[in-house]
Design brief:
The chain is an alpha/beta fold and 603 residues long. Helices cover 29% and strands 17% of the residues. Helix 14 runs antiparallel to helix 15. The chain binds 1-deoxynojirimycin.
């Protein structure tokens, strides 16, 4: 036991309320998607069963037992639909068929059936701000076929130039000229991702029919790609161009346009309200107040993905890498926790397929693997103990890290490749560009899942579509499963704890000492049941006197990332916990990246 705990007495047989016993009485209304933990799968990089070097649906089915062991409830699959892969499936050419490399519709049906058999729900990625330029709708639209003419956003140019000066998200202009139509089409992302025209009722009806197609098969909801961009302004105007730049930011006119709310309301009324589903909208440029327009009671979505906390290590853009500003991070998270409390619901994430690996981003860059593991567990504690639905991204649960491929040829992501090409065109040296790519490239998240120490980390028998991270002999599922103190087992513990303690899901959130640069301290409370979460965000030892509200209180340490996990399992499993001891909270010392979760006994 840590020296600074004062042992008061053994806990003995005290058992905490769990959902099965009294859960229903302590929360008015239980909601499955609030209690759930979601696991995101990037199918291309998850598990390959046919040796083509690309993950597939059968690979997901093959790993369902692993996911069940982790304890997650819902799987979100990044796009699995037919696509030419200009943006790895976020450019869809057929919404009702499966990407050839991933398998067939019958593979999907089997996956769904096997997932359900294990009690796992499935979310699909709804990418309907844009399609692929190879979608039959676009092919017909560019030919001016009257049935599809207005399916996309076509405008005439201005004196030989595009209709506005807006940039596209991954570089260049947001407009592309098509001689056949003598007009430009809008693409907020790559030119192979033309934006759909949501003004057109036929577009909306086609999207709703497609949603019903999947929901009627039994899928349990959608993650909705950039869904707050679907509504476009009536008039398109130029945006201010910052000095030294070529383009202006058209997203500022588009994000959260009132028409997006209107379309989502219609989507809810016509489709979503008829099913018991989970919905989470990806919404760049939202604050808690704006988010309430989507997720407050009676609004069309359950949750949104906000991005504010993803910017705390960036300067003028994502590639301009800065040290993490933890006070800013805590302030943002607390603003969201407080802003949506009782009125909406938060999604909680640190990783996804667009973000670098959290353990490399927020935790030590030193090579000390013990510290890195502890840091990964600290981050997991932070996220899973807040109010909201936690999202785990594949590989996060084993502490997968960023990669650093010295050659640009080893990168695959269109955003990364465009950033590099533009930089080189401006005369920036390779060596000056790569550090940003090492820190922020989306490919950091997209390297193959590290299953074992075998060749290609056991991901494929063939040649992987992108290189495997070089540390796979150390960081992999096989070794995580066999080590009782691995990051994997810590995630299992967090998920179990959530199932056991309603306060983790439904309790209020109060932050303490928000300005503390190194510690994150917050309390969760539900009907007199209270948890205190204390996290050392840094690589240095921290001394801390607990706030007067708690000073001298007795508390049980119910989870810690330094003690062996074995000490906590009896409590987590709801069994008698002979080893769990009471401590008095006074002056505490935290090891680097230490995380503690106390149950406040005398609260
Ligand atoms: C957000 C997705 O997460 C990202 O991967 C994609 O490139 C863009 N939307 C465009 O669909």
């Amino acid at each position: 036991m840590n020296k600074n705990f004062v042992v008061v007495k053994d806990v003995g047989k005290r058992v905490h309320p769990c959902y099965d016993e009294v859960g229903v009485t302590i929360v008015d209304k239980r909601t499955w998607w609030k209690e759930a933990v979601v696991y995101q799968i990037y199918p291309r990089s998850f598990y390959d069963t046919n040796g083509d070097g690309i993950g597939d649906l059968n690979g997901i089915t093959a790993k369902l037992d692993y996911l069940q062991e982790l304890g997650v409830d819902v799987l979100w699959l990044s796009p699995i639909f037919r696509s030419p892969n200009a943006d790895n499936g976020y450019d869809i050419s057929d919404y009702e068929d499966i990407m050839a490399e991933f398998g067939t519709l019958s593979d999907f049906d089997r996956l769904l059936k096997e997932a359900k058999a294990r009690g796992l729900k499935l979310l699909l990625d709804l990418v309907v701000n844009h399609t692929s330029d190879e979608h039959p709708w676009f092919i017909a639209s560019r030919k001016n076929d009257p049935r599809y003419r207005d399916f996309y956003i076509w405008r005439e140019g201005k004196e030989g130039a595009p209709p506005t000066n807006w940039f596209a998200a991954f570089g260049g202009s947001a407009w592309k000229y098509v001689p056949e139509r003598r007009a430009y089409y809008l693409h907020l992302f790559t030119e192979k991702q033309p934006d759909l025209n949501w003004e057109e009722k036929n577009v909306r009806d086609a999207v709703y029919a497609m949603m019903r197609f999947w929901l009627d098969k039994g899928v349990d909801g959608f993650r909705m790609d950039v869904i707050n961009l679907i509504g476009k302004p009536d008039v398109f105007e130029d945006a201010p161009v910052p000095p030294g730049e070529t383009y202006g930011n058209g997203f500022a006119f588009i994000a959260n346009h009132p028409k997006s709310y209107w379309y989502l309301r219609e989507m809810y009324d016509e489709v979503l309200s008829h099913y018991d589903v989970m919905t989470v909208g990806e919404t760049p440029a939202v604050t808690p107040d704006v988010a309430l327009n989507y997720v407050a009671d009676g609004k069309p979505l359950n949750m949104v993905f906000q991005f504010e906390h993803m910017d705390v290590d960036s300067g003028k853009n994502k590639w301009d890498v800065r040290p993490v500003d933890w006070v800013r991070f805590k302030t943002i998270m607390s603003r969201w926790e407080e802003g949506l409390a009782d009125r909406g619901w938060n999604s909680l994430y640190l990783n996804n397929h667009d973000q670098p690996r959290s353990v490399s981003r927020y935790v030590t860059r030193s090579a000390d693997s013990a510290l890195r593991r502890r840091g990964a567990k600290m981050l997991a504690t932070m996220l899973h103990l807040m109010q909201g639905t936690p999202f785990i991204y594949q590989g996060e649960e084993i502490g997968m890290t960023n990669v650093a491929f010295p050659r640009i040829e080893d990168y695959r992501d269109v955003e990364t490749l465009n950033f590099y090409a533009e930089g080189r065109k401006r005369g920036v040296a390779h060596e000056a560009l790569m550090p940003s790519i090492y820190a922020k490239s989306r490919d950091n998240a997209r390297t193959p899942m590290q299953w074992s120490h075998e060749r290609h980390a056991g991901f494929t028998q063939g040649e992987p579509w992108i290189k495997v991270g070089s540390n796979y002999t150390e960081i992999n599922v096989e070794s995580s499963l066999s080590d009782p103190d691995s990051i994997f087992h810590y995630y299992r513990a967090l998920i179990r704890l959530r199932k056991r303690l309603p306060v983790i899901v439904y309790g209020t959130y109060t932050v303490y000492d928000l300005d503390h640069p190194s510690l994150y301290i917050y309390e969760r409370k539900l009907n007199g049941d209270a948890l205190l979460v204390l996290l050392n965000l840094t690589e240095t030892v921290q001394h801390y006197t607990v706030p007067s509200t708690f000073y001298g209180h007795q508390a049980e340490l119910i989870l810690n990332n330094i003690e062996p996990l074995a000490a906590f399992w009896p409590y987590i499993n709801g069994e008698v916990a002979p080893d769990l001891t009471l401590h008095r909270l006074t002056d505490l010392t935290f090891a680097p990246y230490e995380a503690r979760v106390y149950h406040l006994v005398s609260a």
